[in-house]
Specification:
Blueprint lengths: L15 H12 L5 H25 L2 E3 L6 E3 L3 E3 L5 E3 H6 L10 H13 L6 H12 L2 E4 L4 E5 L1 H4 L4 H9 L11 H14 L5 H6 L15
Antiparallel strand pairs: 1-2, 3-4, 5-6
Length: 216
């Protein structure tokens, strides 16, 4: 495909294996700063893509060639010479877990703003932990529904919920993560019927032993 009709590209969701390793080392009281940055900046790139994709759906399209704003119409066109039918552009967004409304976009934008300026491993881990345990919210009841982790971590919804349920925690884990865990468990219980994989997991411990309507 020639540069004049290049398709937009979006950052991939973060692999479970990297997040698992991050939590395993954190549960041992170890800060692997390279791994923290790898996971954190992977999530940041995904958040940026999520935000850009949602803006594109709303009509704010960045040109994949020069990043100049392009007006949404049947055939997208930029002064730099780039052209592409909107239908082809939109296909790159569909079925990629790149859809969400206001509160989710705000959560992702907060992470994009905060992570690069975080100066300590503890702060970075807390930002990561808070982000991946966040939820979409139902407008009418202002209650939690679908975990945003499915937009950020590879896998189907049930797989991602089960994966987060099995992450390693201990008394050596970063202070503050236990509070995020408690809120996650509460929000999952509110939506108990959504997650059959969670119900199957209830026969085993929630965490491994210490390791020394419309969405908004």
């Amino acid at each position: 495909m020639s540069p004049s009709n290049r398709l937009p590209t979006w950052a991939a969701r973060v692999p479970k294996s990297k997040i698992r390793r991050l939590y395993e080392t954190d549960a041992k009281g170890i800060y692997d700063e390279d791994l923290i940055d790898e996971v954190g900046y992977g999530l940041l790139a995904r958040c940026e893509s999520f935000i850009a994709a949602n803006r594109a759906r709303a009509g704010e399209l960045p040109c994949p060639e020069c990043a100049r704003p392009v007006r949404r119409q049947e055939v997208l066109s930029c002064p730099c010479g780039w052209e592409l039918p909107w239908a082809d552009y939109f296909k790159t967004i569909q079925h990629k877990q790149l859809s969400g409304a206001g509160p989710v976009l705000e959560q992702f934008q907060d992470f994009v703003n905060a992570f690069p300026s975080a100066r300590t491993p503890r702060k970075k881990v807390l930002l990561i932990d808070r982000l991946i345990h966040a939820f979409h919210w139902y407008c009418k009841t202002n209650g939690p529904t679908r975990p945003v982790a499915v937009n950020l971590i590879e896998g189907r919804l049930g797989e991602v919920v089960a994966f987060l349920d099995r992450l390693s925690y201990s008394h050596k884990s970063t202070p503050g993560t236990s509070e995020n865990l408690a809120e996650w468990n509460h929000n999952i219980e509110v939506n108990r019927g959504w997650y059959p994989s969670r119900r199957k997991a209830e026969a085993r411990p929630l965490r491994p032993a210490e390791a020394d309507g419309p969405r908004c």
